[in-house]
Specification:
The protein has twelve helices and 14 strands. By secondary structure, the protein is α/β, with parallel strands linked by helices.
Length: 347
């Protein structure tokens, strides 16, 4: 409860009552605020409007018994009858007439403070969203096309994952983060689980390893490692303990996924990445997918965001666009690469 409401409620319960003989002041230290039920004030206002228990019950969608019970509790709190039945109608006491003038502004203030945010209007909003996600050309283009169509004034900054990623997200420096691994997320973050990733090896068309894909080829040719994520989360390819003589030789470490396609297409290097990252690259550069030589467990993937900002309408909107684009891209990419793997097997 904000200080504004506490001050207002204090005012309500310090209204002076007058009768011919004395003035009674409800001193605040006799009122235990933590025991005050604001619903009693709602019932009181309804009774003052309707002038009957039955009418207030209908207005509040309560039983007459519940309204009568609430009135009795409020009478005990303030030490005044408030409303008395006279000639079939409830009539307000002098104190109740004073009290209602203070209660109505309080209730209106509470309604205003608790009112849900106005609906987000993408078409009229100028805002920049900060998203940290490996750049899959399909996901990026789908998101940007959808955003520009619905919200031409909105910008997106596509960022690399920082070292202190969890703090950056929880503090609102990043609106949406994509990260893999089994690690438990710290408090203050919400997340959505994505389909797990399978890792596939890719080489150029005409690569000498196509004819003799096996442990010897895996060892002989150099590999590309993409290190775009600044955290210590390791690729499942790195986690597999290789057999003696089959260790990967990392010939090139690069920081951008966008460089993978041309580098693989123009060399005898091997890269092992998920289809969602490589499907469009495979098509563009005519790459050949091959099953990796080690068994890897599915790699769990999540998008996560700050719990504090979870209900921000604009962030809900952009999350839905990015997550939907990612799910569709993942499904389509997996189907395409799997089909090509089948073709290679048949060949």
């Amino acid at each position: 409860m904000s200080s504004l409401f506490v001050v207002s409620i204090t005012k309500v319960f310090t209204v002076t009552q007058r009768n011919p003989n004395e003035t009674i002041s409800a001193v605040m230290n006799e009122i235990q605020l933590h025991k005050i039920d604001l619903n009693l004030l709602v019932v009181f206002e309804a009774l003052m409007v309707e002038s009957s228990v039955a009418g207030a019950a209908v207005k509040l969608n309560k039983t007459p018994s519940a309204v009568s019970h609430a009135l009795a509790r409020l009478r005990d709190q303030v030490g005044d009858p408030l409303m008395v039945k006279v000639g079939g109608k409830m009539q307000a006491s002098p104190f109740a007439l004073q009290l209602i003038d203070d209660v109505r502004p309080i209730l209106n203030s509470i309604k205003r403070v608790l009112r849900l945010p106005e609906p987000f209007d993408p078409a009229s909003t100028a805002r920049t969203f900060r998203i940290a996600c490996p750049i899959s050309a399909t996901v990026l283009s789908t998101v940007m096309n959808n955003v520009q169509l619905a919200a031409p004034k909105i910008n997106i900054d596509w960022l690399q994952t920082p070292t202190e990623v969890y703090a950056a997200v929880s503090e609102g420096h990043i609106d949406l983060e994509h990260l893999g691994g089994e690690r438990r997320l710290p408090d203050g973050l919400d997340w959505a689980e994505m389909p797990p990733m399978e890792f596939i090896s890719f080489i150029r068309n005409g690569h000498p390893a196509i004819a003799d894909w096996g442990e010897e080829a895996w060892y002989r040719h150099g590999h590309i490692k993409v290190a775009s994520v600044a955290t210590d989360i390791r690729s499942p390819v790195d986690e597999v303990a290789p057999k003696p003589g089959t260790e990967r030789r990392i010939a090139a470490r690069i920081s951008e996924f966008s460089a993978v396609g041309p580098l693989v297409a123009e060399s005898d290097l091997i890269v092992t990445l998920p289809p969602v990252v490589m499907a469009s690259v495979m098509e563009t550069y005519g790459l050949v997918p091959l099953r990796p030589l080690m068994r890897m467990d599915p790699f769990h993937v999540r998008f996560f965001w700050s719990s504090r900002m979870a209900n921000d309408p604009a962030l809900v909107w952009i999350r839905e666009i990015v997550l939907d684009a990612y799910r569709v891209a993942h499904e389509d990419a997996t189907a395409l690469v799997t089909a090509r793997l089948g073709e290679e097997t048949m060949a």
